[in-house]
Design brief:
By secondary structure, the protein is α/β, with parallel strands linked by helices. It has one domain (4-233): TIM Barrel (Alpha-Beta Barrel). 45% of the residues lie in helices and 19% in strands. It has helices at 4-15, 30-43, 58-71, 104-120, 138-142, 153-165, 185-194, 208-217, 226-229, 234-245; strands at residues 18-23, 47-52, 76-80, 92-98, 124-132, 170-174, 198-202, 221-224. Strand 4 (92-98), helix 4 and strand 5 form a beta-alpha-beta unit. The longest helix has 17 residues, at 104-120. The chain starts with a helix and ends with a helix. The chain binds SN-glycerol-1-phosphate. The site of SN-glycerol-1-phosphate has 15 residues, from strand 8 and helix 9. SN-glycerol-1-phosphate (1GP) binds next to strand 8 and helix 9.
Length: 249
């Protein structure tokens, strides 16, 4: 995998919107993670994210990444919640700063601690502003997020604009894994107005209609995790892929 960022941009041009599937190595068994990854690759997912805010078993995650790498061709992108989420063998990493954390550890300190491993493992860093919306999820709790309410699109847009000015090329609007409510299309639209980079939206997305609304509002990539972990069908996932790729933005 020469350059994941170029691949994502080129694929976005072709497909209009990308689907990322999140595999939490602490929830999925390695074998079923590999089978799932193969299936979602066939369906048309553009990358697999591995990680999660409560994933702390570095050894288990490295094993999962290794097996996934042998099973699929689409890139494996680490999605770390902490320095323990930096493991060898993946193609890239969402090198994220949790911009709306109350704890400087999640804004710049974990990044400093993790950066040497990113370099050592040859992971391509994708500079990402991670912005948590709503509350009550693991990402919100562990990341000490200063909640942006779902209806306060202007606050999310302010953070996204600062990400733009700071030179970050990805923004991830996160409602949190298994969130009861997903990020609203109005907020995505407000962020899209000010942020020119790659816009990822995740948390609580379970069906094609929601995914379509978010893509119409300006999301470039949609992340799905819990829906599949909770036995959601691959048919729904296939619907999501088909729907988001047929949207005129
Ligand atoms: C969580 O955005 C991802 O970090 C995916 O969320 O698990 O709710 O799909 P779900």
């Amino acid at each position: 995998m020469p350059n994941v960022e170029s691949y994502l941009k080129a694929t976005l041009k072709k497909k209009k919107a990308l689907l990322f599937v999140l595999i939490d190595s602490e929830i999925s068994e390695i074998k079923s993670a590999a089978n799932l990854a193969k299936e979602v690759e066939k369906i048309g997912a553009s990358a697999i994210l591995v990680g999660g805010s409560s994933a702390i078993d570095q050894f288990g995650m490295a094993q999962t990444v290794k097996i996934l790498k042998k099973s699929i061709k689409i890139p494996i992108i680490l999605f770390p919640g902490n320095v323990t989420g930096v493991v060898p063998g993946a193609d890239a990493i969402l090198f994220s700063s949790l911009l709306n954390s109350d704890n400087p550890y999640f804004i710049s300190q974990a990044q400093a601690l993790g950066a040497p491993s990113v370099l050592k493992f040859g992971l391509e860093p994708l500079p990402t502003a991670y912005i948590i919306i709503g509350e009550g999820t693991s990402a919100w709790f562990i990341g000490s997020a200063r909640t942006i309410p779902f209806e306060k699109s202007n606050l999310a847009a302010m953070y996204a604009l600062s990400a733009q000015f700071l030179g970050m090329r990805f923004v991830y609007l996160e409602a949190g894994s298994g969130a009861k409510s997903n990020v609203k299309p109005e907020m995505v639209a407000a962020v899209r107005k000010v942020f020119r980079g790659f816009l990822i939206v995740g948390g609580g997305i379970k069906n094609a209609q929601t995914a379509a609304e978010l893509v119409k509002a300006g999301a470039d990539g949609i992340v799905i995790g819990t829906m599949l972990e909770k036995g959601g069908s691959l048919k729904t996932l296939a619907d999501i892929v088909k729907t988001i790729q047929n949207i005129r933005k």
